[in-house]
Amino acid sequence: RGIRVGYTPDVLTDATAELSVALLLSVCRRLPEAAEQVKSGGWTTWKPLWMCGYGLSDSTVGIIGLGRIGQAVARRLKPFGVRKFLYTGSGPKPESAAEFGAEFVPLTRLAEESDFVVVTCALTPATQGMCNKDFFSRMKKTSVFVNTSRGAVVNQEDLYDALANGQIAAAGLDVTTPEPLPTDHPLLSLKNCVILPHIGSATYATRSTMAVLAANNLLAGLRGEPMPHELKL
């Protein structure tokens, strides 16, 4: 119908990468669970293994989708002492991967070898439901899974089973299916699953930049001029 479409690319990369790292650390070090113990009186005397989690130092991190956000996540995780980065996607990206010494591997190998799996890929027919029962069954029992891409990349029923049965250690999600997630959803009953309300881009600076870009797109469109960021249909 000749409707022009403007969008706001490249503005949420850093904010989403920061949130991905924050979510990963919260999950692997059990921060929400630990904070709840303080409030509920569960914090008593020191115990050697109480509230122990998993650290990033000397670990292997697998990134599904080494695009802008995936690279930004790896860039932030590298100083934590990650020993090895693996990645998978539609094809190798040697130039991008060189910065982290990341190795391109099949999805199955990434699942088997990673201590932490971070999903930052686009949702496509090829990626829909790719993190499923088979994927989780290949992961280590001590592995942590984080998804900040799109909810539909994950089969949530399979993820629930993997978490409830101890197939994987923990998971952190900023995206779900549907959104908002119903408050009675089984995943919300698990202590080893942290779910956020899709706040990957929720910094004041990022949202302000988005608003300005959207407004400039709209004004240019009304004037019949090329939009600063126009989707070519």
Automatic annotation (TrEMBL):
Q: Which PROSITE patterns match?
A: D_2_HYDROXYACID_DH_3 (PS00671)
Domain D-isomer specific 2-hydroxyacid dehydrogenase catalytic, first and last residues per copy: 1-231
MF terms per GO, please? glyoxylate reductase (NADPH) activity; hydroxypyruvate reductase (NADH) activity; NAD binding
Q: Which domain of life is it from?
A: Eukaryota
Record-stated family: Belongs to the D-isomer specific 2-hydroxyacid dehydrogenase family.
One Gene Ontology CC term in the entry: cytosol
Phylogenetic placement of the source organism = Eukaryota, Metazoa, Chordata, Craniata, Vertebrata
CDD domains found in the cross-reference section:
GDH
Q: Where is the D-isomer specific 2-hydroxyacid dehydrogenase NAD-binding domain?
A: 21-200
Protein name, per record: Glyoxylate reductase/hydroxypyruvate reductase
Q: Which gene encodes it?
A: Grhpr_0
The protein's UniProt keywords, in alphabetical order, are: Oxidoreductase
